[in-house]
């Protein structure tokens, strides 16, 4: 006989395991199904984010930044290092340890919250009774096969790296984010197709460790989703660091040899070019993961791109079937998935879950970091919104000077009449942490004046946020 639950969550990534925990906290008997496994075959919940995405990339970004600082900037602090060497196996081992700690942490949290965990792939078998509203049967295919049922199903199956036609990932020469995190030796020449978040972060890691990195981007503008002023500053700083970024590129034939990869492409001037790389990372976006879900069996609707169709509350076309995270519309961000997971669990309980897409922060963990929330200046212009802007450079911030990292700025955009904050954009040290103040302010519909009047600790990087808010009214005090 099938085990019965109130809620079954398929997928144990940020959206899935958080949804399961919140559902259990609300009193529902809850199951979470996830098929990720580590090298030993043991469960490794956390999805792409924990296993081959957010967490391992940040571990390598931190390690590679330490390496670069030790080789280039420690001397300025009076720290002399002689005969510095890179122990790449140890760096990768540390990254794997961080992953494992997060996997184990999620398993502990599921157990602590009395969520029943199933290790395997979940898929629909069918609906129960004559009406879908009565519930659904889900098959779990793991070491053994079993069947479980529940009235409510939450789909959180995530996404996969998008491949270029004719250039399938082999994770040896042609790499997705998975292979990019496990390169066994620093390549002399590394190619990256796609100047998005993953491409820039992975390119930064391997450039710091000694690779000559070339980034090829199809779009004519660099970081088109980022505020123009911030993107231009980023392009200038990345070029200074040694990242070679070509825009307006049209990729042609990609050929993998025995030990290298050749890429034929046309540059922005229309000139045919060929480059040969030791490794090639392809980071051109991600596709929703619905393979093996057996959606057609129950009539679950997908759109033309393979995303699960949902409404504003994450409801699918099926009664009591919900979907969150990368597999539905909206930004493919782990924290967006988490917020949707919590909101769905609360909606199942009859509460009013809250997800405000306009206050979801974005972060690129390069050095300097780039973070933003709300509208960009180009968006406000296109929408005909009257606004005021204020900026403040980290060059004028005492804490940034003490850190030895004064690149970048904070930028505020506020409504011209009401002064309500419409967007905040940061490029500079610890931007990923600084952006949280802006998110809170925008959730409470604060004005730039509100931030300008709040006392910020001195010396701190957050003072740059206050000063940028002051600059909206042209009364910055330290620049």
TrEMBL record:
GO terms for biological process: 2-oxoglutarate metabolic process. Its EC number is 1.8.1.4. Binds 1 FAD per subunit. GO terms for cellular component: cytoplasm. Residues 5-341 form the FAD/NAD(P)-binding domain. Disulfide bonds join 49-54. Keywords: Cytoplasm, FAD, Flavoprotein, NAD, Nucleotide-binding, Oxidoreductase, Redox-active center. Its cofactor is FAD. It comes from the Bacteria. It catalyses: N(6)-[(R)-dihydrolipoyl]-L-lysyl-[protein] + NAD(+) = N(6)-[(R)-lipoyl]-L-lysyl-[protein] + NADH + H(+). Residues 360-469 form the Pyridine nucleotide-disulphide oxidoreductase dimerisation domain. FAD binds at residues 58, 122, 157-159, 326, 332-335. The keyword NAD applies. NAD(+) binds at residues 194-201, 217, 285. Belongs to the class-I pyridine nucleotide-disulfide oxidoreductase family. The active site is a redox-active disulfide bond. This is Dihydrolipoyl dehydrogenase. It comes from Glaciimonas immobilis.
């Amino acid at each position: 006989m099938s085990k019965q639950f109130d809620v079954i969550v398929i997928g144990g990534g940020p959206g899935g395991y958080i949804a399961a925990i919140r559902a259990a906290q609300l009193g529902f008997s809850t199951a979470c199904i996830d098929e990720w496994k580590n090298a030993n075959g043991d469960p490794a919940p956390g999805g792409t984010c924990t296993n081959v995405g957010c967490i391992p990339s940040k571990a390598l970004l931190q390690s590679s930044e330490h390496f670069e600082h030790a080789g280039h900037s420690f001397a300025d602090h009076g720290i002399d290092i002689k005969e510095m060497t890179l122990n790449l196996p140890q760096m990768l081992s540390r990254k794997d340890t961080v992953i494992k700690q997060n996997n184990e942490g999620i398993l502990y949290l599921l157990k602590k919250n009395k969520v029943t965990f199933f290790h395997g792939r979940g898929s629909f078998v069918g609906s129960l009774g004559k009406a879908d509203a009565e519930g659904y049967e889900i098959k779990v295919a793991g070491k053994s096969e079993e069947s479980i049922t529940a009235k409510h199903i939450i789909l959180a199956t995530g996404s996969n790296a998008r491949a270029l036609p004719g250039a399938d990932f082999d994770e040896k020469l042609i790499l997705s984010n998975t292979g990019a995190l496990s390169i066994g030796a620093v390549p002399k020449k590394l190619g990256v197709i796609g100047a998005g978040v993953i491409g820039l972060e992975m390119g930064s890691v391997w450039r710091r460790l000694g690779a000559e990195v070339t980034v090829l981007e199809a779009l004519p503008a660099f970081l088109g989703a980022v505020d123009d002023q911030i993107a231009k500053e980023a392009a200038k700083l990345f070029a200074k660091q040694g990242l070679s970024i070509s825009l307006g590129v049209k990729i042609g034939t990609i050929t993998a040899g025995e030990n290298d990869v050749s890429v034929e492409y046309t540059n922005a001037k229309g000139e045919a070019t060929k480059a040969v790389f030791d490794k090639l990372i392809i980071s051109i976006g991600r596709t929703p993961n619905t393979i093996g879900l057996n959606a057609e069996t129950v009539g679950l609707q997908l759109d033309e791109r393979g995303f699960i169709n949902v409404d504003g509350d994450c409801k699918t076309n099926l009664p009591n079937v919900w979907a969150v995270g990368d597999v539905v519309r909206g930004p493919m961000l782990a924290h967006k998935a988490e917020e949707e997971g919590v909101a769905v669990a609360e909606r199942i309980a009859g509460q009013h879950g809250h997800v405000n897409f306009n206050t979801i922060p974005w972060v690129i963990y390069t050095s300097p970091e780039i973070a933003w929330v709300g509208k960009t200046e180009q968006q406000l212009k296109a929408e005909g919104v009257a606004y005021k802007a204020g900026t403040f450079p980290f060059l004028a911030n005492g804490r940034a000077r003490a850190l030895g990292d004064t690149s970048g700025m904070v930028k505020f955009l506020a409504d011209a009449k009401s002064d309500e904050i419409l967007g905040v954009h940061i490029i500079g040290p610890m931007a990923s942490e600084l952006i949280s103040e802006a998110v809170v302010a925008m959730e409470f519909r604060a004005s730039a004046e509100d931030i300008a009047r709040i006392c910020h600790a001195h010396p701190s990087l957050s003072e740059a946020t206050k000063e940028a808010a002051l600059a909206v009214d042209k009364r910055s005090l330290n620049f």
